[in-house]
Amino acid sequence: MNSKNPENSRPNSNPIFAIVGPTASGKTDLGVELALHLGNGEVINCDSVQIYKEIVIATAKPTREEMCGVRHHLLDYVSPYTNYTAADWARDASEKITEIESRGNVPIIVGGTGFYLRTLRRPLFESPPTNPALREQFRELLKEKGAEELHSMLKEVDPESAERIPVRDHSRTIRALEVFQQTGKKLSDLQPNRDEPPAFADRIRVFALDPPREELYDKINARALVHFENGLVEEVKALLEEGVPPESNALGSHGYRRVREYLAGERSLESAIEKTAQDVRNYAKRQMTWFRKEEGVIWLNGFGSDPRVKETLFDRAGCGNS
């Protein structure tokens, strides 16, 4: 006699929500609002800088008050000495999704690192671990000769990847060059060897914020200035003195990279502030381009704090007004 409960054997059909969009668009607030509205939501961080402990000022991590009692995962999660990858995040996020759903709660993925989310929905191939010394060599070459030179190098060894990766996307260009240097194989040849997507991949509903461009840039400029006023230089100096490698992923992020250059005497403080704001504006533009290329994205026109955006999200998420 089969004693299995048929209710327990049914596949889970409940949605998993993802709130994405450019930096400074209000994703964090909107994710918390959705979790509170649902009554049983838990947030999974999808920001490649907020993942790090001790990296605080330029990350816009939510404070305890801003979390409003909503449980958050993969936030302040790994040491800044660790070069945490998209594959690492996808593995850990997958485990968190399973854990959250086992409690009968709803996972809400929140953040702007599109590559993380794509890797969760479409797993990567088995790739060699990051070689920090090799990455630093490519970063120095980027600084000396620019993104165009790196992209030309990639075109020589892997024209298929160069065709797919934009010239200005130096992070992906560097990774493709690293793979070739470490394995002698082209990234474009290795990528088809992917694992199957997780069983829950089709249940992820992606909502992307699309705020007015000029207002977004004004917020980014103001935020960059506030970060420096709040002690960003001192934070980076302390991390370097503790021994966090300058070439680490944590200190290679926006804001932190320009402060490293200022501390090394390579640019003035004023230049570091201006360049940081420009870097983040360009990053926001790339984020929008990235999410526009993703499949099945539902766009929300405005900032996450806009009541109309919240109402649209709740309606489209199927939870309406309660």
Task: Describe this entry's structure for a reader.
By secondary structure, this protein is α/β, with parallel strands linked by helices. The chain has two domains: 15-123 and 201-316, P-loop containing nucleotide triphosphate hydrolases (Rossmann fold, 3-Layer(aba) Sandwich); 132-190, Orthogonal Bundle (Histone, subunit A), CATH 1.10.20.140. Helix content is 51%, strand content 8%. The chain contains 15 helices and six strands. The chain has helices spanning 6-9, 27-38, 64-67, 86-102, 114-121, 132-145, 147-157, 159-164, 170-183, 187-190, 213-229, 232-242, 256-263, 269-293, 307-316, and strands spanning 16-20, 41-45, 72-73, 106-110, 204-209, 298-300. Strands 3-2-4-1-5-6 form a six-stranded parallel beta sheet, with helices on both faces. Helix 3 links the parallel strand 2 and strand 3. Helix 6 crosses helix 7 (147-157). Mean pLDDT is 91; it is low at 1-9.
List the helices and strands and how they pair.
Elements: H1 6-9, E1 16-20, H2 27-38, E2 41-45, H3 64-67, E3 72-73, H4 86-102, E4 106-110, H5 114-121, H6 132-145, H7 147-157, H8 159-164, H9 170-183, H10 187-190, E5 204-209, H11 213-229, H12 232-242, H13 256-263, H14 269-293, E6 298-300, H15 307-316
Parallel strand pairs: 1-4, 1-5, 2-3, 2-4, 5-6
Helix pairs in contact: 4-5, 6-7, 6-9, 7-9, 11-14, 12-13, 13-14
